[in-house]
Design brief:
Layout lengths: L1 H59 L8 H7 L4
Length: about 80
């Protein structure tokens, strides 16, 4: 009877240790993922957005590019 109780205690203890290790690993993974996402969202994305807006503003002032006769000839087969 005591042996059975000790077995149940040991199995429960092992289960608690395994669950705590699993939760610690999951917490670490979620923490790292949250850190990377927040870095990309708050550090990288604003810089990309500002660069995109600047390029759009600069591109708006240009007229559409026209091909030179030499470029057009090269594209049409190099005759």
């Amino acid at each position: 009877m005591i042996g059975t109780l000790l077995t149940f205690f040991a199995v429960g203890l092992v289960a608690l240790v395994a669950i705590s290790i699993l939760l610690a690993v999951l917490g670490t993974v979620f923490s790292l993922a949250f850190g990377v996402v927040s870095f990309l969202l708050f550090k990288v994305a604003p810089i990309l957005l500002i660069g995109w807006v600047v390029l759009k503003i600069m591109d708006r002032g240009k007229r559409p590019a026209e091909l030179s006769p030499a470029d057009r000839e090269w594209l049409e087969g190099g005759k």
